Amino acid sequence: MKKLKRSARLVEMTQYLLSRPHTLIPLTTFAERYGSAKSSISEDLAIIKEVSEEEGLGELLTLAGAAGGVKFVPKVPQEQSLQFVQHICRLLEQPERILPGEFMYMSDILGQPGILNEIGKTFASAFYRRDFDVVMTVETKGIPLAYATASYLNLPVVIVRRDNRVTEGSAVSINYVSGSNKRIQTMSLARRALKEESRVLIIDDFMRAGGTIRGMMDLLQEFRAKVAGVGVFVESGEVDEHLVDDYVSLARLKVVDSRSRQATVVPGNYFDVKDGE
């Protein structure tokens, strides 16, 4: 039990909620933690709720009843995310990022914790209304994005491997056709990594035609799991048809020319609709 002044209690309660997103916390938890009446705790939570929503930190949901409490849902306004993504687009258009074969170097961007944090928060905002059990990605570049997203959704991360590892025990492996080069490739997922009939959010760093994501979808069928959402950091706009229909992209690579080392990157389809639509 902690005896704190109200100002200090508000600060610590806010930190407590921020570190436990999408977690139902009974009012008795705070009442016992600070040795305060539930009425006082309710007043404090009302203040936190107002400030969080006004400052674009997220929503504080209240659930009534004996099993009720409060749940903090991180959510960043679309307008704020758009400003961030426009900055990322400018970084991606730098000529030195263009690689032979019209590929793009992004590893340095995905290695910056501050940027990953914002990407994760944006994906969490895009999917906060949906119900998931896990966040899934395929090694290797998608891993930091998946963990950043999962931290704001309070979900575990499942990693699909390019090949089976002895340390992961029995696994399910499938062959799939890469959408970019039409090559037959293999992906594998340990049987212990995912419960059957799980609801999955797939996160990937880059999607050209969508062959890798389609492969993950096919792999999930072996676990009788449901793909409840797909998030892509950057999608290519230079393909005739994607193998994935329903997805959220944060940025779109419209044009890339390795000869002139020029690229045009614009905000993705997440910004095609307004908040609440």
Description:
With 277 residues, the protein is α/β, with parallel strands linked by helices. The protein folds into 2 domains: 6-74, Arc Repressor Mutant, subunit A, CATH 1.10.10.10; 78-272, Rossmann fold (3-Layer(aba) Sandwich), CATH 3.40.50.2020. It has 7 helices and 12 strands. The longest helix is centred in the first third of the chain and has 17 residues, at 38-54. It is globular, with a radius of gyration of 21 Å. The protein starts with 5 loop residues before the first helix and ends in a 10-residue tail after the last strand. The mean pLDDT is 91.
Give the topology.
Blueprint (H helix, E strand, L loop, with lengths): L5 H13 L8 H8 L3 H17 L3 E6 L5 E6 L3 H15 L5 E2 L3 E2 L8 H15 L6 E5 L3 H12 L3 E4 L10 E7 L6 E7 L8 E9 L3 H11 L4 E11 L11 E10 L4 E6 L10
Parallel strand pairs: 5-6, 5-9, 9-10, 10-11
Antiparallel strand pairs: 1-2, 3-4, 7-8, 11-12
Helix pairs in contact: 1-3, 2-3, 5-6
